[in-house]
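Duplicate of #3305? Posting structure anyway:
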């Protein structure tokens, strides 16, 4: 006879002890933004050089606005990286992100279909990596954690793979009884 057990002790996601991202995660994010701002400023300089009318009308705004924009985005990155964290628990992995709108994503390890470790050129230089976890039925990653060390990514991948192997071995053991 089937009996549906009541679960009374569900852990609260607010009680999760999150680990911070790698020390160089902030540097990685700042370098990525600089890779955007340098060409952006170069285009603005070129536009001002070739269009003197535009330059004379917007010089004050550009000289004040662009540095303020860069400073605000760099400060936002500092706060954002400080608030991010991840937790690898017995049956799931959690990731928290967001400054204004905070989001906690919890992915059960039993649902993970495959994983990818990604390293761009800046990440490789800083010995960082991004981990993407995919579950059934989705085309895009259900959980992506950037700013981990490459070693952390490999350890998490190994943990998830061993969890899946234990999960698939359990029904075989039950079938033998």
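Output from current build:
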């Amino acid at each position: 006879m089937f009996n549906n057990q009541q679960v009374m002790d569900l852990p609260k996601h607010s009680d999760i002890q999150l680990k911070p991202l790698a020390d160089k995660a902030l540097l990685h994010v700042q370098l990525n933004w600089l890779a955007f701002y340098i060409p952006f400023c170069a285009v603005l300089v070129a536009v001002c050089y070739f269009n003197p009318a535009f330059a004379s009308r917007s010089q004050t705004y550009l000289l004040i606005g662009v540095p303020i924009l860069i400073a605000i985005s760099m400060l936002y990155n500092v706060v954002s990286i400080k608030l991010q964290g991840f937790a690898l628990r017995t049956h799931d992995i959690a990731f928290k992100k967001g400054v204004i709108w905070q989001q906690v994503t919890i992915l059960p390890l039993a649902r993970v279909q495959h994983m990818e470790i990604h390293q761009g050129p800046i990440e490789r230089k800083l010995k960082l990596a991004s981990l993407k976890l995919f579950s059934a039925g989705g085309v895009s990653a259900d959980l992506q954690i950037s700013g981990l060390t490459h070693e952390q990514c490999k350890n998490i991948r190994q943990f998830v793979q061993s969890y899946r192997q234990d999960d698939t071995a359990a029904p075989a053991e039950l079938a033998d009884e």
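Confirmed duplicate; merging threads. Residues 170-177 have pLDDT under 50 and may be disordered. The beta strands are 85-88, 92-97, 103-108, 112-118, 128-135, 143-149.
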